[in-house]
């Protein structure tokens, strides 16, 4: 994560990719969340409408007492999935590779958009995440308003099906529409929580790997290659790690 770069208190920035088939409402939900309006942004790829100080406020979201600055990039999955001739999508691959969080979007009234995002979409995201283990992610069904009340029969994706898939891959699932901004804000907060969770887990994994590396016995040839300096260094690291424990022991002993 990088700092926002805007004046005022430093707020961590979170890069979010909204990935979904054409027409599922990627632009609509981001516009509603950011501007409480429709059709603020027109182009599908790489749009970051943070031009002025006044609009930058709208990207701020508070989650569990901490403010975050959200940057959105919406990626239309359809041309990439269909590999349209001449389309270069290394830019999108890169965006997904560096994103802090991914919002997988489908249309509740169109089962194909769900099938594509949970099969092709999920695989595409995982393939782009080279070098990263865990990442923030949520599954979101859009256009809830169109499948409610007397239009119930227009629902093609049962909520339970989405929840089942989401829990299988370890993400949360939500249903929204482009009219309910409060709900969209809640959903974005959950995505930020998922990003923070992934960050913590990646850090823990890294620390565990380092510890294992430290305690792994060296072979004789490794020892002779690295000489005494490396060995002394790892001994020093172990002593340093144990130091607070030793101090508290000696305090309780005295
Ligand atoms: N009723 C309803 N219509 C929606 C909703 N979200 C989007 N739409 C409509 O669905 C159409 C497509 O929305 P967009 O936001 O352009 O979808 P997109 O995923 O950005 O589409 P591309 O940029 O073409 O990939 C538009 O006519 C929107 O007004 C929603 O929650 N409810
Ligand atoms: Mg769009």
Automatic annotation (TrEMBL):
Coiled-coil ranges per UniProt: none
Feature: compositional bias, Basic and acidic residues: 208-226
GO BP terms: protein transport
Keywords tagged on the record: GTP-binding, Nucleotide-binding, Protein transport, Transport
UniProt keyword annotation of Chaperone present: no
UniProt superkingdom: Eukaryota
A molecular function (GO) term: GTPase activity
Keyword rRNA-binding: no
Disordered: annotated span: 208-234
Classification via SMART domains: RAB, RAS
InterPro entries recorded: P-loop_NTPase (IPR027417), Rab (IPR050227), Sigma_54_int_dom_ATP-bd_1 (IPR025662), Small_GTPase (IPR001806)
Protein name as it appears in the record: P-loop containing nucleoside triphosphate hydrolase protein
